[in-house]
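Hey all, sorry for the wall of text incoming. These are the two entities for the joint prediction.
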Amino acid sequence: MKTLYKVPGAITDTPTTYCPGCPHGVAHRIIGELLDEMQLTKKTVIVWPVGCSVFGYYFIDTDAVEAAHGRACAMATGIKRTHPESFVITYQGDGDLASIGIAETIHAAARGERICVIYVNNGNYGMTGGQMAPTTLLGQVTTTSPYGREAHANGFPLKVPEMLAAIDGPAYIARGSLDNAKHIIQAKKFIRKAFKVQVNNLGFSLVELISSCPTNWKMTPEESLERIRKQVLPVFPIGELKVDEGVA
Amino acid sequence: METRVIINDERCKSCNLCVEICPEKVLRISDRLNPKGYRPVELFDNEACISCGFCYLICPDAAIVEIRRPVKAKV
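and here's what came out:
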């Protein structure tokens, strides 16, 4: 028998604490696979956020730091500057990166810090019970927008990759999705490019991953992936938004 | 014949995503329980499995541990 796919060694034996059907685990597996393939596991430092993935250091077997809410990019800046030989990733959700940590993220990008940001967007604050986040779609019902998000009262969904692609600092900005096998393979390609940006010392890279939240969307896992395809992807189209010269 | 999909029962959370994505529909939720109280997925038709790996790609809990394909004997 020939092995085609195997769970990478960077993923620990600890079962994840996420709800059934949560795509966080898919993102963890992609990161683990790439760290193993690019032989970076030993020198990687992952900065974990506040949110559902707060216990991420139990699931990926690398050095890890737990940042204050939203401050992962600021912490990663310090780690990368004091240990330039290390490989620094931050793993953040949309409530963490797009809301409380938007200043740290934009300024880290504008300075062109040599870090990789993995930004998982599921359109609400999953850990605390599904409150409205900056990325919640118009009309989406959450616990703090019981009649649906309205533009005149709550504003429009925030598109962080488009914002960062407009400034000169970042070297690579992309958006992938975790809703089916094709998009998961594509997302892995985007993250591989983002990792190569840091390996080749080219600058800041960010990959947004469109994710679901079956528990707080009150759907089965399959229905939540169907909702991504029908409602979320038209608002947040996938693709590469900024690719600097020299990024392979 | 050896199994083509190796499943770790203890990690499975019975989310049903692999059952839905499987193009040949050879996976199903089993009747037994794992230590966390979920019913783990099982491969019930090894012969019909085409080793495409879609279940591995979609699995959020790394419960689909390994996908294998038989090597054809050289004549």
